[in-house]
């Protein structure tokens, strides 16, 4: 009951926010020529139609739209104000998915001011914060600034933006807090290192603490070829270290790159504030009193023109399933913007039956005029039968057609044969439309418009 | 009294540190267009930015550390929509479905993941928590109560 209520509230909230944004967008658009600033507006809309049949022979035809908007105002002093928005929505054209015929999400919507000096930033709205111990999506405020002597600081406060399908009628262990705040202080020497100290606290409406964590992070690059970093995070509520995670990368010559990683996780501390039932320490399969170690190594060789050869090895040591080794390699031949082929091969070798299998993947992609064609296949063969099947196979074929630089069309077909679905075809058609008020000749990638 | 003094001193220190600060902000947009292919930062940077080389075989495993220490830098090439392809609150597409035309990308959950997740979820549940721990879990609840 209560859950429906809050759902409704968040939906209305989203609608209001969406409508407000649309209004803001259109006013800005119309007043644009009047403004003396270097101002631009751009966006992208991707419409997807998915076709599939469920196990009980229902045909599903959901129609999706993903919308991205960017408004930028660069001032003459070099400062800038940007507004970013990302959202998606779905309506079901035939049978409905689950119990709703429509759904959607406001992924991000924030206004950000950036100064030309000291990385001063002020951001307000729904945004994705990554500061040391925090990886949080919030509805709130984010601030950052550089100070003297290489000191930098950031802080954020807001409402948590989470999904809680099991929040009511179940144990309170599946309920998340409603507010979150925290920050990070760092000291750096651009040439050699950055060290940081960060903290995060999240509370329920009543004031009870949901999470309280702190972390130290480190990034050291003493010489050009060496890069070392990682972090250790501590959980105040369980009074234990959640994780120690570190890596070391080394490039002895420009064509060889080596990397190692080490992570030690205490599940009781790490999983304490997780609200997805399969991933909490309440799931007996995950044995909360245990710790888990992962050691990994990678090597890449790029000495042959257009070819990249990679090898990787990982050892999982987890009291639940004993030890497991995963190792394999990848070979890719690629002429960027024209043609790429590659294959990967991985072996998993562990104590349990489930943990003995081979994984193969092969792919190719080619651009032909306005078309691009991609084929990508994955196959997993288990040493011992899983639910009567020893093999899980999926292949996707995709064709894209660039009508002009604003409109791109694409269609995918996926065929799979697996323990879950004996034989299945799925289709997807996609149209991506980009629009802007002005072409700005600036750098960045496709994703920075 | 002691508390007040500490606060005043801290504020004073902040003001000094603030007024002596003089770094240039990371550019809003990376000054050079690096295109759409996965970039090798060392091609152009011999300083510490080279460490962020996206072609390094361990970059995907390390990007979380860089994101936590140098997010300003990521923003000069990636808007939030880029991260949101994989880091969603709620979505119905796997990244590999939306990016089926980019086989060179290192995307989680390629192929038939409903079968494989039972294995990966046991061997390394911690890696799943990062994206499904408190969000993106409505689908999980269909089978996991």
Could you give the topology of this structure?
The complex is a heterodimer of chains A (449) and B (145).
Chain A: H1 2-31, E1 38-53, E2 59-60, E3 62-74, E4 80-92, E5 102-114, E6 121-131, E7 134-146, E8 151-160, E9 179-189, E10 193-203, E11 209-220, E12 226-235, E13 240-253, E14 256-266, H2 267-270, E15 291-301, E16 307-318, E17 322-335, E18 339-350, E19 356-368, E20 371-386, E21 389-402, E22 407-417, E23 424-436
Chain B: H1 2-20, H2 59-69, H3 71-75, H4 80-84, H5 95-98, H6 113-123, H7 125-132, H8 140-143
Helix pairs in contact in B: 6-7
The helix-strand sequence of chain B is HHHHHHHH
* Fraction of residues in H or I helices of chain B: 40-55%
Biggest β-sheet of chain A, characterized?
A: 22 strands, antiparallel, barrel
Number of domains of chain A: 1
Q: What are the segments of chain B in which pLDDT stays under 50 over at least 5 consecutive residues? A: none
| SS-based class of chain B | mainly alpha
Mean pLDDT of chain B: 91
| Shape by Cα distribution of chain A | globular
H-E order of chain A: HEEEEEEEEEEEEEEHEEEEEEEEE
Largest sheet entry of chain B:
none
Subunit arrangement of the protein: heterodimer
Describe, in plain words, how this protein is organized in 3D:
The complex is a heterodimer of chains A (449) and B (145). Chain A is mainly beta and 449 residues long. Chain A is 8% helix and 61% strand. The longest helix of chain A is centred in the N-terminal third of the chain and has 30 residues, at 2-31. Chain A starts with a helix and ends in a 13-residue tail after the last strand. The model of chain A is unreliable at 1-36 and 439-449 (pLDDT under 50). In chain B, helix 6 (113-123) packs across helix 7. Chain B starts with a helix and ends with a helix.
């Amino acid at each position: 009951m209560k859950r429906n209520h809050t759902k409704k509230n968040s939906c209305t909230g989203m609608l209001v926010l969406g409508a407000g944004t649309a209004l803001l967008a259109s006013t800005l658009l119309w007043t644009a020529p009047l403004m003396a600033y270097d101002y631009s507006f751009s966006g992208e809309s991707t419409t997807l139609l998915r076709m599939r049949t469920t196990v009980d022979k229902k045909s599903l035809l959901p129609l999706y739209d993903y919308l991205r908007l960017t408004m930028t105002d660069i001032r003459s002093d070099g400062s800038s104000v940007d507004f970013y928005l990302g959202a998606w929505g779905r309506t079901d054209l035939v049978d409905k998915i689950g119990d709703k015929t429509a759904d959607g999400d406001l992924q991000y919507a924030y206004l950000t001011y950036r100064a030309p000096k000291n990385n001063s930033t002020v951001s307000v709205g729904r945004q994705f914060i990554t500061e040391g111990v925090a990886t949080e999506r919030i509805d709130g405020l984010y601030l950052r600034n550089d100070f003297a002597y290489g000191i930098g600081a950031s802080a954020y406060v807001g409402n948590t933006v989470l999904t809680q399908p099991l929040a009511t009628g179940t144990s309170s262990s599946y309920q998340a807090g409603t507010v979150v705040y925290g920050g990070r202080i760092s000291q750096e020497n651009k040439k050699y290192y950055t060290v940081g100290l960060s903290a995060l606290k999240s509370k329920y409406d009543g004031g009870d603490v949901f999470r309280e964590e702190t972390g130290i992070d480190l990034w050291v690059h003493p010489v050009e070829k060496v890069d070392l970093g990682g972090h250790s995070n501590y959980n105040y509520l369980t009074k234990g270290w959640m994780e120690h995670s570190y890596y070391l990368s080394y490039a002895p010559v420009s064509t060889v790159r080596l990397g190692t990683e080490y992570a030690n996780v205490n599940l009781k501390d790490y999983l304490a504030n997780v609200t997805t039932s399969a991933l909490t320490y309440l799931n007996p399969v995950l044995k909360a009193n245990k710790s888990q170690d992962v050691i990994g190594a990678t090597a890449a060789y790029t000495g042959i023109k257009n070819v990249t050869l990679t090898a990787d090895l990982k050892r999982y040591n987890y009291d639940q399933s004993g030890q497991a080794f995963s190792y394999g390699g990848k070979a890719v031949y690629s002429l960027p913007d024209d043609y790429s082929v590659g294959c990967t091969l991985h072996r998993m070798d562990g104590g349990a039956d489930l943990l003995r299998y081979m994984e193969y993947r092969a792919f190719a992609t080619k651009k032909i005029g306005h078309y691009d064609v991609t084929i990508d296949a994955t196959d997993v063969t288990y040493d011992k039968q899983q639910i009567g099947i020893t093999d899980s196979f999926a292949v996707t074929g995709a064709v894209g057609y660039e009508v002009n630089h604003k409109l791109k069309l694409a269609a995918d077909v996926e065929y799979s044969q697996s323990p879950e679905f004996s034989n299945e075809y799925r289709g997807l058609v996609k149209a991506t439309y980009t629009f802007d008020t002005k072409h700005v000749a600036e750098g960045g990638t496709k994703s920075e418009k | 009294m002691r508390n007040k003094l500490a606060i005043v001193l801290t504020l004073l220190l902040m003001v000094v540190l603030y007024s002596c600060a003089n770094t240039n902000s990371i550019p809003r947009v990376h000054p050079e267009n690096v295109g759409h292919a996965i970039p090798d930062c060392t091609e152009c940077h011999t300083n510490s930015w080279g460490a962020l080389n996206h072609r390094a075989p361990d970059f995907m495993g390390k990007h979380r550390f860089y994101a936590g220490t140098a997010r300003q830098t990521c923003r000069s090439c990636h808007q939030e929509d880029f991260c949101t392809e994989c880091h969603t609150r709620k979505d119905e597409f796997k990244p590999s479905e939306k990016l089926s035309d980019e086989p060179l990308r290192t995307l989680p959950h390629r192929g038939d993941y409903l079968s494989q997740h039972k294995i990966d979820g046991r061997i390394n549940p911690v890696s799943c928590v990062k994206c499904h721990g408190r969000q993106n879990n409505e689908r999980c609840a269909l089978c996991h109560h």
